[in-house]
Amino acid sequence: MIEDPQIRVLFGPNSSIIDDLLHNIGASTYKIAVAMFWFDYEPLANALIEASKLGVEVKVLVDQRSLLPMCDDAGNKRLMSVPEYLSQNGILVKIYSGPDDIFHHKLVLIDDQFVIDCSMNWTYQDLNYDLNHYMVIHHNDVCNHVARWFQRFWQRQDLSSLPINHREPQATLMPQARVHFSDEESLKTVINDILNRAEHTVEVMHFVVNSSWFLNCIKNVISRGVRVRILSNGESIPFLRQAANLGALVKVLTPNHIKKLHHKTIIVDGRFVLVGSVNLFDRSLQLDKEHLFVFHAEHIADGFSSEFERIWSLHSFVPSSSDKTSIRKSPMFPIMSRLLHGLMSKHRLITIILAALLCLASAANVLMAIYILRFG
Questions:
Q1: Which residues of the chain have pLDDT under 50?
Q2: Residue 342: predicted pLDDT
Q3: Does residue 54 fall inside a structural domain?
Q4: What is the pLDDT of residue 182?
Q5: String of b and e for 292-329 (b: at least 16 CB within 10 Å)?
Q6: What pTM was computed for the model?
Q7: Whether residue 328 is found in the same domain as residue 206
Q8: Residue 116 sits in the same domain as residue 246
Q9: Which helix (H) or strand (E) holds 214?
């Protein structure tokens, strides 16, 4: 966890994240704005409904993905979706149905006082099982920017349009914390600008990485002598092999430990942190509605770096495409790395012990049969 007067970060899966969301929604006094790609978790929908009943203005923007059936707190499917459920209970909901892109934001603005940014969707799966970050940001300029963006997007013609009260803060963003929206500027430009500042290290912890543009960025960073490490899921293996051939250290998460990694984080030189909704594949970078926070603060970077190192220690290096049998360069001997990786999984260790016992039992039965046949 990262504690800061303005920024607090939790890493999931963690029941404290759901508790914190429910607390912040319940403590709201006049306004909640939700921008969420996928929202199917009934307990959070109920919290929004209760806030609305107490006089809080609640507005929810979601992607059409959220029209799938919602889940209760035990993962059981309901008959209706969250948008339908919220609408029936008097909450204003608008749905984005882009022809080619998706509305991929995961933001909440509460009382214009703080922003919640998270890599998780508001789904039963993401909130209870997947690796994600959850960040509460008390920063006036960031809140003002998010409020202006939300109001502008709410009035788009491809959404159902309703008149709203609009106040326009004039503050400008401080360099220590900035938020960028894909429909205002290119997020590629933002990412490239920070990567160009890298002098020592770049750590990437992302759900899926397969952008040729990002591979070229990594190539340029490595050519300057910067150490690059990348963590991702199995879907990224083709990209990870190419990055390994360029000199990056890369690891893929195995399903033995967790369901999946859903972080969307880049850490540069232990100073800059890039987090948000954007994934590192072309559609997300070029078409989808996304946002990206850039923080320039060592203590924030330290917290994300600790999470990166924790996950990094659990998983295997990916072989390069030119060496299918060996493990990519590791600070540990390859065999020891694999042994430790296997022992880190409690379930795998139990499986190995049971298999060994079964083998011993089978061997004992064979010896007994030989003894009976020979000595009657």
A1: 161-175, 320, 322-346, 371-373, 375-376
A2: 47
A3: yes
A4: 94
A5: bbbbbbeebbebbbebbeebbebbbbbbbeeeeeebbe
A6: 0.68
A7: yes
A8: no
A9: helix 212-223
